[in-house]
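Today's session is about reading a structure prediction critically. Students often jump straight to the picture, but the first step is always the sequence itself: look for stretches that repeat, for charged clusters, for runs of hydrophobic residues. Only then move on to the predicted structure, which in these notes is written as discrete structure tokens rather than atom positions. Here is the chain we will use throughout the hour.
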Amino acid sequence: MNNYDVIIVGAGPAGLLAAGRAAELGGKVLVLEKMRSEGRKLLITGKGRCNITNDAAIGEFITHVFPNGKFLRNAFSQFFSKDIIELLEKYGVEVTLERGGRYFPTSNKSLDILRALLKWVNDLGVEIQTGYRVEKVVVEDSAVKGVRANGEVFLSEKVILATGGKSYPATGSTGDGYDLARQVGHKIEKPIPALVPLETKGSVAQKLQGLNLKNVKAVVWVNGKKAGEAFGEMIFTHFGLSGPIILTLSRIVVKALQNEDKVEITIDLKPALDEQKLDRRLQRDLNEFGKKQISNIFRNWLPSSMIPVFIELLEIEPEKECHQISGKERKQIRHLLKNMRFEISHNRSFKEAIITAGGILTNEIRPKTMESKVVSGLYFAGEMIDLDAETGGYNLQIAYSTGWLAGNSLLD
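Below is the predicted structure for this chain, in token form.
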């Protein structure tokens, strides 16, 4: 009765894709999910909108994945963005392509994605048991024999672990899969928060709380050396910095903080202008509005909510007239516009991290099948593998592709 062709641990996107593919191949498939409902984390992705995937070509896509995107080339060649979109459209989900190559459901509801995937696996006869926490992968002679969950043994010679990482633990991602993998001899790259907001020293970011900046450049400095940069959108929060470019840079920051390095981020508010062009513009404006107070002229350069903070940092009297601004003060203004500096004190926790970096080492997984090199019949899929990507739909596609490939194991 408890004997299956494939057992999948975890009913997120990776687990559901694995289940559907295995069932398509005629397998008797069981999915065990410890939460009371499936896809809890999928529902909150993209702020509830679900950035399904990205339209980048495979070669470009791989450049957005760390630390070893090339590991996914085979998985992507078997099942990629066009395939997940085709599957979702078959089950009634209309999709819209937005800037940055990002696909979203036209309804802007992640629930539609989950419902489509569940309808697909249900139509194929997949059995899903919720409320089952897997305690152990049963292994004999370096081969999988099944799993034990809630004290009950379920038998199968193929087990796919798709338990997710450690980010958003309230959705069930609490790192269980790492422990299951360790028990059978796998090595784990220490899981750390990725795509995570950053806390800053001082009160400047807090004074700018809620301000959203577009078309700015952020640069990460580790012990005074440039370590990375990103262009786009960011936001100031009550604790520091967040938004797409900050999340993208956070993987560098988190690792540096773990090494107890000094980490700073500078914001270039005028990336389209080099120092000389910006200086000429400042001179022109200061001359043109010579009789006006400096606080008024700043409206030409900055969002209004930034002006009092900027003037405070520059230590310039706000009533000072433009023609009284010295060359030295103009240089200070120019420098701050190009290099607004924040020292990073901490990263936020897994509770606020979009994904997890670290996990099962890719050199212990066969890239053509997702099978373990340590235990035959054991497969991995999704976020628990040591692969993470930038924002933009890349991480979910990793889950679909690795899940589908692991589900393909019935052909092995």
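Discussion point for the tutorial: The radius of gyration is 25 Å.
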